[in-house]
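Dear colleagues,

For the upcoming journal club I promised to circulate an example of a predicted protein-ligand complex. I picked one with adenosine-5'-diphosphate because it came up in last month's discussion. The inputs are reproduced below in full, followed by the predicted structure.
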Amino acid sequence: VKKQVVFSAIQPSGTITLGNYLGAIRNWVKMQDEYSCIYALADLHTITVRQEPAQMRRNIIDAYASILACGIDVEKSLFFIQSHVPTHAQIAWILNCYTQFGELSRMTQFKDKSKKHADNINAGLFTYPSLMAGDILLYQADKVPVGADQKQHIELTCDIAKRFNGLYGNVFKIPEGFIPKNGARVMSLQNPLNKMSKSDENVNGCVHLLDSPEVIMKKFKRAVTDSDACVRYAEGKDGVNNLMTIYGAVTGKTFEEIENEFAGKGYGDFKTAVGEAVVEELRPIRERYERLVADKGYLAECYRKADEIAYKISSRTLDKVMKKVGF
Ligand code: ADP
Ligand code: NA
């Protein structure tokens, strides 16, 4: 039997976060044996926000090495760099012409980002979802493992694909989002109403994959909680809920097990336990990262090979699309 195709991508817009890891990358790693996995560093998406070129170049290599360090195996999976594969920009243009202004206007990520970057609300920020749709549809993906914040974009991808198929016959496979049960929405440790993000302005709100154990412990000790002084999952306890989510995702424990473990104990003990669990989860990743990033030649060999294969696979879909349109 032919394996189902998995596609997912991540932006190299800064160092990878614990949210990216628990919401997405950890699943990428798990899916490698059962599926035919195709992963991309979505650097074309990153320039929707202004980047400093030298920093951008470093971020791309850092992110590539970080993700390999998480356990992506280039013998099993394809892991390429989006800007190296021109079919992505090509299909994005075509799909833009099959995506409605109204649909893009409803995307909550666009609304959030245009508030945040009010001085640069560029057309790319607006059409980001049609590029993402192209990324996925080029590979005829069955499943797309993402965090909960990408649900709306996946739905739009399906709408665009169905619209195109409706006009021209079965060109695209209709993909399915794959959102983890635990870890899909990791929130900022300082403002648990906002998602943990690379671009968090409060440095203590975001745990990075490559933070040292000391820094990780410090961030968890300073995490915002509440005055209830009881480790339980309940409405309004956003800080504690978030810490329980993280602890559960890392240890595999249920909320009930966590509540029992910390019954009668204070938040101090709880935060220390969460911090230590995260430190242990990330330790081997950081060690592998150090080795990988020191070998730029090996990294280049990995992505060049993958870029080439990605180009071949995606060209098959792009050729079909172009013919259907009338080119
Ligand atoms: P970011 O939002 O940090 O810029 P990306 O947009 O590149 O990251 O998203 C990469 C993947 O990480 C996506 O699948 C996204 O859903 C997931 N992700 C991002 N932030 C979080 C979070 N706080 N919790 C869970 N998953 C997340
Ligand atoms: Na995102």
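Two points we might discuss: Residues 203-290 form a domain with the Tyrosyl-Transfer RNA Synthetase fold (CATH 1.10.240.10). The beta strands are 5-10, 36-41, 78-81, 143-145, 176-178.

See you all on Thursday,
B. R.
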